[in-house]
Specification:
about 400 residues; OB fold (Dihydrolipoamide Acetyltransferase, E2P); GMP Synthetase, Chain A, domain 3; five-stranded antiparallel sheet; four-stranded mixed sheet; about 40% helix; KH_sf_prok-type; RNA binding
Length: about 400
């Protein structure tokens, strides 16, 4: 009966975790063999018969009968006198199979057995979860907010699996309440110890790509190919698309009538501004398209150095740079070129780095962040606008402008 009592303790795991019969039997045999090794030193002369469907388990020890007084290995040999207590007609040299009751292992061993069994079943369960989510890396997944922490949101899916959405993988405007459903891509799955850690991301370019697949049938069907996605999460993104079917306008199909198709994607991403661009192998044309909505006058490219000098009319410069410098930075990431903007008709200008004797490096860096690398580029800006777009004080900006003006007045 003690066998059945122990089997009942693990049958609940079988039902709860839906472990198949073969796997459960393998786990049970492994656990019991470890217990036998601890008690008897080895286990290869034991037969373990598991019947989880009936809740039954038998352990048989196989030994050889030797003459009385000649037993050298208690585990593998049994004296004739002891053998005849089992069956009176045993003779020396015969094999004896004797059932080992769980109670013979000792109370502490049985408690350890149960704990080891629980651990093995959980380990099996965790391995299956790891494999399941490893196959889902890069795919969109939905889970419910379970707990909100300072550095992460803990989500639970329908099967109770825990998924982590770290703060730095959330769009800045994201705000979730407990019980809300959250969409993102499974970014990474790692086994830490025996427990899988599943990380979700809403900021990865892949999330935007998968949203296009979900929301735009031509992308899902492969009629439109997404060549590359670059993002400043929650602010701006650029998506290069292409189609091998000349009858399809990939940009028009993705955006839809009056933006109808892309609207749900924009809303999901916290009103992220998404530019959809026709991909081309003509790199000069691709840079021109990537800098949209700015209209370019001319481009001078160095393909080996991967740099491009773009000439624009003065009124187009701010469009090319974009708010916070996002447009020019994303255009560079999309095309793989370092893009420098120049104003048409400006013959004489000086790069800001030439003023390091009078302007501190970190101040120059602040201007560079928003795409202002030359003296005239800064002087053409409004002071209040620069205060808003940089981390610089108004007084600092005015001082910089005074230094720059003096350069051209001399």
């Amino acid at each position: 009966m003690e066998n059945i009592a122990l089997i009942e303790s693990f049958s609940e795991f079988k039902d709860d975790k839906l472990i198949d019969r073969v796997t459960l039997m393998a786990i049970l045999e492994d656990v019991f063999r470890n217990a036998l090794k601890k008690k008897y030193g080895e286990d290869d002369n034991f037969d373990i018969i598991v019947n989880p469907d009936k809740g039954d388990l038998e352990i048989w020890r196989n030994r050889i009968v030797v003459a009385d007084g000649e037993v050298e290995d208690d585990n593998r040999e049994i004296s004739l006198a002891q053998a005849r207590k089992i069956e009176p007609d045993f003779e020396v040299g015969e094999d004896v199979s004797e059932e080992v009751k769980l109670v013979d292992l000792g109370r502490r061993a049985i408690l350890a057995l149960r704990q080891n069994l629980i651990s093995k079943i959980h380990e099996h369960d965790n391995t299956n979860i790891y494999k399941q989510f490893k196959d889902l890396e890069g795919e969109i997944y939905t889970a419910e907010v379970h707990h909100i922490r300072h550095r992460a949101i803990i989500l639970l899916d329908d099967e109770g699996n825990e998924i982590v959405l770290p703060k730095d993988r959330q769009i800045p405007s994201d705000f979730f309440r407990k019980g809300e459903n959250v969409r993102g891509i499974i970014e990474s799955v790692e086994l830490k110890g025996n427990k899988p850690t599943i990380i979700m991301s809403r900021t990865a370019p892949g999330f935007l790509e998968k949203l296009f697949e979900q929301e735009i049938p031509e992308v899902f069907d492969g009629l439109i190919t997404i060549k590359k996605v670059v993002r400043v999460p929650g602010e701006k993104a650029k998506v290069a698309v292409d189609s091998y079917d000349d009858r399809i306008d990939p940009v028009g199909a993705c955006v839809g009538m009056k933006g109808s198709r892309i609207h749900s994607i924009v809303r999901e991403l916290g009103n992220e501004n998404i530019d959809v661009i026709n991909f081309t192998n003509n790199e000069q044309l691709f840079i021109t398209r990537a800098l949209s909505p700015a209209k370019i006058t001319s481009i001078k490219m160095d393909e080996e150095a991967r740099t491009a000098e773009v000439m624009l009319k003065p009124e187009e410069v701010s469009k090319a740079i974009g708010r916070g410098g996002h447009n020019i930075r994303l255009a560079g990431q999309l095309t793989g070129y370092e893009i420098d903007v120049y104003r048409e008709g400006v013959e004489e200008d000086v790069e800001l780095k030439e003023f390091t004797d009078e302007i501190e490096d970190w101040v120059i860096a602040e201007f560079s962040k928003i795409g202002l690398d030359t003296a005239k580029a800064v002087l053409e800006q409004d002071v209040n606008d620069l205060v808003r777009r940089t981390d610089l004080e108004e007084e600092t900006i005015k001082d910089v402008m005074a230094v720059l003006r003096s350069e051209f007045e001399e």
